[in-house]
């Protein structure tokens, strides 16, 4: 993975927390990072090039009158006032290369001296085993603070540990060995059985990233919410707010006009395509 | 009437295998490589401009440049050259490189005449830019992909838009007459990989995307861009029926666009 620092920019030492999305249903993690970048007024400091990510280009996604600043598949932003680094991912990973990509990300984060990595991801509502109607839009988490994935700070924030995480389960163990480099992905034949229901969570991109960052000795927290595909913007707000709570940011101090101070990225105006052709009516 | 409770959901934005860490990767392919007319040269080519044509109208126009010399080809080992002709032809599955001399500038033209999967584009971009060819400036012609465009597209409309690298935007832009591609839409594929490569290498790069994908009107639009902004005064040898041929060229007959019929 190559990192191209923009001219005149540098990495801020105080930005020791890295927030990034994992590809997931509804693109919620990516939408949440968009919202955080726009609302913290983070500045782009560079772009990353990884052969495991499919290419895409576009115009600036954030400012109201885009001036042609090139948007790329992997971009790094920093907000020194919030002590945050954010990486946005705009395109999918090459099929079968998720673990390689996660390893490269982990190498980059470690090389930049990041201390805490927060991964934002959604989970498929269709897989939700225990419906807890009393908790509304519950945030779930997974942390490497303890062996079973629990973290006191997350518990105090009212979040629930992802109980499907079992470090001794076959695929979670296999992910760990892949992340540590003990086996190669060619050894997937070691998994003799077909994948079952309990294999859903470790098969997701956030799990690969969690395992790879953990293997690098970084503190890593995954923030997760269940959703279905559709208009996932409300889910993005929910996840972004959770990230703010974790790092001690208050959205009502952001400079936006939306409820709570959020700044809506300019590119969201067309996120679901153009408005209907009114000449039809 | 379909049962709304149990009917199949609409297609997901992701395929299941896109979100599965354990999807087996496709077997690796041999790297693309350049075959140049001077294979013994140890120094890279350093043209002032590298033009890469990907879209049908740009391929048609640049194929008809009269003052170009075949100087090499990009080889993708997985692409068969079965059916290619000895003399370069628009029907070939090839990416030939040509040298053009124009107004004392050295220009290399790459006519990319086949489609490649997105997974392959990173390697192709790396081969074309920054290794054996180190251009001062790159211009890529591609087309707008309707599936990735968030505005309205009608085949009655004809237009071209641009994206540029940061270093291109700092100076006097090559494509002065074009507006920027709108925010919220994206370009993917080889054009994106090439422009991304320019950005990473701090090379002046411009991507010109046009709509519709083929036809006489968009061919005329690109001809105007070429003659006004890029290669003023250049001779394009297009005969009286050239505009009509531009309409017909690119209409692919997929059922015969196969190695079975070469």
Automatic annotation (TrEMBL), chain A:
Belongs to the PSMG2 family. Forms a heterodimer with PSMG1. Transmembrane segments: none annotated. PANTHER family: PROTEASOME ASSEMBLY CHAPERONE 2. InterPro entries: Proteasome_assmbl_chaperone_2, Proteasome_assmbl_chp_2_euk, PSMG2_sf. Chaperone protein which promotes assembly of the 20S proteasome as part of a heterodimer with PSMG1. It comes from Cynara cardunculus var. scolymus. Keywords: Chaperone, Proteasome. GO terms for cellular component: cytosol; nucleus; proteasome complex. It holds the Pfam family PAC2. GO terms for biological process: proteasome assembly. Gene3D superfamilies: PAC-like subunit. This is Proteasome assembly chaperone 2.
UniProtKB/TrEMBL annotation, chain B:
This is Proteasome assembly chaperone 1.
């Amino acid at each position: 993975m190559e990192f191209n620092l923009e001219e005149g920019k540098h990495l801020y030492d105080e930005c020791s927390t890295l927030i990034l999305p994992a590809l997931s249903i509804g693109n919620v993690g990516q939408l949440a990072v968009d919202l955080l970048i726009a609302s913290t007024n983070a500045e782009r400091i560079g772009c990353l090039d990884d052969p495991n990510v499919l290419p895409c280009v576009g115009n600036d996604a954030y400012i109201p009158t885009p001036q042609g600043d090139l948007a790329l598949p992997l971009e790094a932003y920093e907000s020194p006032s919030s002590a945050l680094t954010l990486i946005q991912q705009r395109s999918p990973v090459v099929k079968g290369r998720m673990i390689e990509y996660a390893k490269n990300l982990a190498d980059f984060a470690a090389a930049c001296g990041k201390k805490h990595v927060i991964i934002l991801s959604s989970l498929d509502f269709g897989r939700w085993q225990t419906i807890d109607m009393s908790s509304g839009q519950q945030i779930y988490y997974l942390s490497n603070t303890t062996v079973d994935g629990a973290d006191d700070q997350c518990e105090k924030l009212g979040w629930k540990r992802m109980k499907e995480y079992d470090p001794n389960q076959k695929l979670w163990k296999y992910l760990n060995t892949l992340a540590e480099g003990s086996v190669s992905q060619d050894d997937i034949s070691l998994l003799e059985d077909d994948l079952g229901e309990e294999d859903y969570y470790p098969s997701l991109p956030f799990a690969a990233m969690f395992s790879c960052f953990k293997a690098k000795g970084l503190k890593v927290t995954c923030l997760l919410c269940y959703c279905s595909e559709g208009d996932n913007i409300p889910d993005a707000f929910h996840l972004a707010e959770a990230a703010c709570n974790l790092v001690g940011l208050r959205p009502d101090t952001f400079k936006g006009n939306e409820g709570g101070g959020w700044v809506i990225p300019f590119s969201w105006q067309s996120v679901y395509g153009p408005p209907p052709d009114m000449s039809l009516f | 009437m379909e049962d709304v409770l149990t009917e199949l959901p609409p297609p997901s934005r992701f395929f299941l295998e896109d979100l599965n860490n354990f999807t087996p990767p496709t077997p690796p392919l041999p790297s693309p490589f350049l075959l140049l007319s001077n294979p013994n040269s140890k120094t890279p080519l350093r043209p002032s401009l590298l033009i890469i044509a990907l879209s049908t109208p740009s391929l048609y126009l640049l194929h008809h440049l009269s003052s170009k010399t075949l100087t090499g080809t990009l080889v993708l080992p997985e692409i068969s050259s079965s059916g290619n002709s000895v003399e370069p032809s628009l029907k070939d599955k090839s990416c030939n490189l040509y040298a053009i001399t124009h107004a004392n500038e050295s220009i290399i033209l790459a006519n990319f005449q086949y489609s490649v999967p997105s997974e392959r584009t990173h390697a192709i971009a790396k081969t074309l830019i920054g290794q054996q060819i180190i251009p001062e400036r790159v211009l890529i012609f591609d087309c707008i992909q309707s599936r990735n465009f968030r505005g309205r597209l009608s085949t009655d409309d004809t237009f071209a838009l641009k994206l540029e690298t940061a270093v291109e935007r700092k100076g006097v832009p090559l494509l002065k007459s074009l507006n920027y591609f709108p925010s919220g839409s994206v370009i993917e594929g080889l054009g994106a990989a090439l422009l991304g490569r320019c950005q990473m290498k701090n090379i002046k790069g411009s991507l010109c995307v046009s709509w519709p994908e083929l036809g006489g009107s968009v061919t005329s639009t690109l001809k105007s861009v070429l003659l006004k902004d890029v290669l003023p005064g250049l001779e394009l040898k297009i005969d009286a029926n050239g505009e009509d041929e531009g309409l017909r060229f690119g209409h692919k007959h997929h059922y015969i666009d196969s190695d079975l019929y070469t």
